[in-house]
Amino acid sequence: MDTSISEQSRPPFVLQRAFIETPFERRYLALMQHAWKERSWHVISAVPGSGKSLGIDELVRKSGSYKDKTGVTYCPVIAIRSPKNNARAQDLGLELSSAMGVIPKMQWNRLRPWLVQEMASEQVECIFVDDAHDLNRFTLSYLKELTDNLVASPYKRLVGLCLVTAHSGDVIPLKEIIKQPDEIWRQFYRRMDKEHPFCIVDGHTLDEIIEILPAFENLYQDQLPNLRLRRWARYIYEQLTNPILDLDSSRRVTMDNLTKFVTSALRRAYDRGETDVNGQILKETAELIIQRRDDLFHIGGDSDIFRIDGNSTDEKPPSEQSAG
Amino acid sequence: MQPIYTTNHAWRTTFPHLVAPFQDEWLAGLLLRCDEVNRWDSGTTLRYLLRVTKHPGFGPGSSLVVVPSSILERLAQLLWLPLEDILAATYSTELARLYPPDEPQPRRLIGSQTETRVYPFFSTEREVAERRVTGRGVTGRGMPGRGGILGINTFDFHVCPACIAQNRLLQRSLMLPHMKYCPLHHIAFCFDCECSQPLVPFLADERPFTCYVCGLDWAHLPQYKIPFEQMTLENNLYALYQFFLLEGTYERKIRALQLVRPAMKRQNLVDLRLIYRKSKYNKSFNMDSISLAYVVDLLVSIEISPDDIRNDEILHP
Hints:
The complex is a heterodimer of chains A (324) and B (317). Chain A has 324 residues and is α/β, with parallel strands linked by helices. Chain A is built from eleven helices and seven strands. In chain A, the strands form two sheets. A five-stranded parallel β-sheet of chain A has the order 4-5-6-1-7, with helices on one face. In chain A, strands 2-3 form a two-stranded antiparallel ribbon. The longest helix of chain A has 17 residues, at 255-271. In chain B, 44% of the residues are buried. Chain B has two domains: 1-226, no CATH class; 228-315, no CATH class. Chain B is mainly α. Chain B has 13 helices and one strand; from the N terminus they run E-H-H-H-H-H-H-H-H-H-H-H-H-H. Chain B starts with a strand and ends with a helix. The interface between A and B is medium-sized, with 34 and 36 residues.
């Protein structure tokens, strides 16, 4: 069957950025939702590129938070990214306050109690800290202080806490700090979930790759009408568990690697006027992004290799109704 | 109105808690309600707006009758409101209609020093110092949290305790010169607290809508009924303000002023003593530019009502 069509008639390839609820995301979201509902504390870890930040965004999006014109603001879930570079408690305080909106400049001794009142007022139930491996003992102890103040009178508000970290191997960041013998860390550890305080969420197995690929087929059906990725699942899995990409030899695949591999192959197929990928295209893709990934790339004459496709850089926020 | 959800970029570009103006609410009240709902000190929102718009601050004799568009635009963005809603909390539109083609200016409403004594909302630093509130005024740009003085008038700012008690409302009518009673509740405006200290709208380190000395909530200020003999005069005054501010145009204002001399002639008056300014009507004033406060004082003093103006328009189209 001839699967190619005239390149002349095709608009540029468009990358799709829709959220795919992968098996990883289901595991990860289930854990975060557990922390939210049970108000439990966890350190949640996954390898870089797993989709941790996307999962947090998805949870926040579905949290039902709103700001009403009557002055009522409901925000059960607060998600922030940890401040970097030896951050102090006030840096974390600023991150937390900016997650609520625009805050006029306040001295730290004012912002500190204001944050407690504000979180109680917005009915915060769980705090998610992304990139929590950047937290240090100052910011961690501030999180403890903040949540302790919320539990105390007059608020009596138990708040869940998820410290989301990137890890490699079996070493979970923060565990060493939290398991220290000092009194403050004993208190911190005591507040953590009794059964699963430190969790690692694994990437995808071969069966899970088989489950995910139809989602890509659906997303790109308009551009590659005959796309059948499932039949290449084993090949893709083998390539993505190559030691170059799977540094811990976990035999698990991250969503970032999978997305990059698949979209690179699809773009290649599309540019050649194909309506499906084939073995040759997948092989070339694997060579380019895995085997020759670190090769030096000399850029000589043609700048067209860096052309920008369709709406691939369109980063507009989701459409919303405008004010009023 | 639609709430803001976390998926909307406006979540991070608006204040944590939002307020929208009530019908006929004054901007000062909206700013104080914004402070209160966000648990900020009195004047925090105003100080923030001055800082982010790089506004030099309001000088002596300024008021919130008219506010620069940069401040209003920023406030509209921070409260996720159409600009028109914020603009309606000032008298900018009304004054632009009454005094074309000039940009709206507060003196068009409250008058200038040459006309008479005015009731400024903000006054000089020295005046505030005399009022022993130095170091507690609205901070201007570059002085966040230091309690520097922006220039607050303390002794002419006034509120209706009943409006505060009901809705935390400062009506726009509080800006109208000569008004002494609330047109909604018919009770006297309060200028001072029960502890004898003046009411101050925007003071750092204080809660909104409270006395900066004794902490009394303005909603608990005493409510004195309007005396019967004052009722008619106060009603006439307010009716004329409403007439000009809601329906007025430059032509209508001039036409109303042209009724003054025939009325004086009918009443055999050589001179006319203005009720509120306690001075004689100065016929040499340029009628195009005298303030609305003067116009209304003049018309009330010669007993010309909105109906008289409308009837004249019908009889002499």
